[in-house]
Backbone:
C-alpha cells in the first residue's frame, strides 16, 4: 500500500511505511526519490475509483521530473500498465505524462507492446502517430499498432483501441 503523501515545501514527505522502512525525513526522501517512486509503483493497486487512481499516481509522481535517474523507473512504469491493462490510470494521466518526458521511452514502449499491449500503451502509440514523423517511423508505429490489435495477450479493450486508432490514422492520411 502506498502511504499518504503530504506536501512539505519543495519536497513530499511520505508518512508511513514502504516495505517496512519508515521514510520520515526530507533528505532521505530527496536522495531516494526515484527508489521511493519505484517502490510505490510496484505496490500500486488500482481501485474501482478512476479519480482515486489518478490522484494517487499524481502523488507518487509529485516532483518526479525534477530528480535525476528517473529513467530507472521506466520498466516499472510499463510493468504497472501491463499488470493492470484495462485499469483507468488517466487520460493520458500521470504515467503517460511522465513516460513521455523521459528521453528514449519509445524503445521501452515497443518492448511493452511486444509483451502485452494495454489500453494506455496503444494510446501512447496513437499519440506518437499524431506527431510529426518521417514515413519510415510512421510505418513502424502503424505496424506496432497492427500487431497489438492481434496480440494474444492483449485485452479486448487494447485490441479494440488498436483497431480504432488504425482507422483514425487511415482517415487522417486519406483526408
Residues:
Amino acid at each position: 500500500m502506498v502511504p499518504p503523501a503530504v506536501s512539505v515545501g519543495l519536497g513530499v514527505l511520505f508518512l508511513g511505511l514502504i516495505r517496512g522502512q519508515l521514510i520520515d525525513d526530507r533528505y532521505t526522501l530527496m536522495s531516494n526519490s526515484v527508489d521511493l517512486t519505484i517502490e510505490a509503483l510496484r505496490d500500486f493497486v488500482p481501485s474501482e475509483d478512476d479519480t482515486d487512481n489518478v490522484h494517487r499516481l499524481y502523488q507518487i509522481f509529485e516532483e518526479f521530473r525534477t530528480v535525476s535517474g528517473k529513467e530507472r523507473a521506466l520498466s516499472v512504469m510499463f510493468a504497472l500498465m501491463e499488470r493492470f491493462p484495462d485499469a483507468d490510470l488517466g487520460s493520458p494521466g500521470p504515467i503517460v505524462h511522465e513516460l513521455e518526458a523521459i528521453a528514449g521511452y519509445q524503445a521501452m514502449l515497443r518492448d511493452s507492446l511486444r509483451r502485452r499491449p494495454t489500453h494506455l500503451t496503444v494510446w501512447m502509440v496513437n499519440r506518437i502517430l499524431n506527431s510529426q514523423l518521417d514515413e519510415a517511423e510512421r510505418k513502424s508505429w502503424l505496424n506496432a499498432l497492427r500487431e497489438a490489435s492481434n496480440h494474444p495477450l492483449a485485452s479486448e479493450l487494447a485490441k479494440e483501441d488498436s483497431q480504432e486508432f488504425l482507422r483514425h490514422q487511415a482517415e487522417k492520411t486519406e483526408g
Observations:
- The first strand starts at residue 5 and ends at 8.
- The beta strands are 5-8, 11-14, 17-18, 21-22.
